[in-house]
Amino acid sequence: MTELLRTSGDTTVPDTVGHERRGGADVTGVEPLLDVKDLQVTFSPRRKMFRERVELRAVDGVSFQLFPGETVGLVGESGCGKSTTARGLMRLVEPSGGSVTLGGQELLGLPAGKMRKARKDIQMVFQDPYSSLDPSMLVLDSIAEPIDVHLDLDRAQTVERVGELLQRVGLPPEYMYRYPHEFSGGQRQRITIARAIAADPRILVLDEAVSALDVSTQNQVIGLLEDLSRDADLTYLFIAHDLSVVRHISDRVAVMYLGQIVEHGDVDRVFDAPAHPYTEALLSAVPLPSPKLQRSRERIVLAGDPPDPSRVPPGCRFHTRCKYVMDVCRTVVPLPTPTVGSGEVACHLHTSGPQLAGRSVRELATPHAVVAG
Ligand SMILES: Nc1ncnc2c1ncn2[C@@H]1O[C@H](COP(=O)(O)OP(=O)(O)OP(=O)(O)O)[C@@H](O)[C@H]1O
Ligand code: SF4
Ligand SMILES: [Mg+2]
């Protein structure tokens, strides 16, 4: 069984989104490639009206693991902290606490030079292929940047490698002598993927990498990512709004709300039997393939916007919007519970009240019929 949940400050959050594991490895003895523990990223923005600084815990005790070759999806509403988690673990923003080990090496606290070297193994692809390529640079020079930093190749070898990389992402090698404005959105995203894999990383963090593309281009780029993961043995952290895409590509999924992971598990378990009311509500917005099923399913509308992350509600952070809310939820942080099948959930329904004990929250027929445990 996974180590369960960890208490972080005044909150209790899932300790680890990982395979069934013993110590640092899963039951098959495989060590995680990336091990994120209790990651904290805090911002201190100024409030507009009064100009005083507030503390905003954008990532508040996030833990998960990536095992070699798998894809973990990270989902949640806008502003829940997905990008900040990604940027924090890569130290593109400096975390205020926690631990991130990559292949056994602790990244937090690494001096800048060593951190630059470590980034060879973990690269990021962003949503916007227009802004992530320098318009004044030839594709050749954009893709060559990580090669120059991380690999010891001369110019001729670099040009040859860039040609191979372009072919690998489905583009003719001669495109290296063109500028970004000469390409469509899908082609530009292929070029950013070529650049991301240029120095042979082990992990790609894909932050809404296909979100800006039309559906057919999206499908092509997802196909490319699947091929790359198989052929180049890549491991993905896949961040996306589109839950159908996440289901398609991910092996496991973690659901974030207000800076924390509230549920995680194998992707089919989470999508077919969500254990957290927030997951259930998120999933109810995903269209079903059959119109009959679609008509018969309840659409759960999440009331209001997520609370201001600088004013996190006490108890369960989701209690202000949860249709199953009980008295206990308003004051007590929910303890973690293993879910039936795989993963964990942090919700009182599983430990008090109706005692779901890890089963799907869909088994609760009548919201509000529940009582405080
Ligand atoms: N540089 C920053 N300074 C202050 N606050 C920030 C900064 N970056 C992010 N935030 C805040 O941190 C929280 C998490 O933001 P983040 O961008 O990680 O969310 P997200 O889940 O990626 O959202 P989206 O789905 O819209 O991309 C938000 O409240 C956001 O306003
Ligand atoms: S039932 Fe309570 S603990 Fe569970 S998500 Fe709703 S408010 Fe949170
Ligand atoms: Mg984001």
Automatic annotation (TrEMBL):
PROSITE patterns: ABC_TRANSPORTER_1 (PS00211), ABC_TRANSPORTER_2 (PS50893). GO terms for biological process: peptide transport; transmembrane transport. Belongs to the ABC transporter superfamily. It comes from the Bacteria. CDD domains: ABC_NikE_OppD_transporters (cd03257). Residues 36-283 form the ABC transporter domain. This is Oligopeptide transport system ATP-binding protein. SUPFAM superfamilies: P-loop containing nucleoside triphosphate hydrolases. It comes from Geodermatophilus sabuli. Residues 1-26 are annotated as: Disordered. Keywords: ATP-binding, Nucleotide-binding, Transport. GO terms for molecular function: ATP binding; ATP hydrolysis activity.
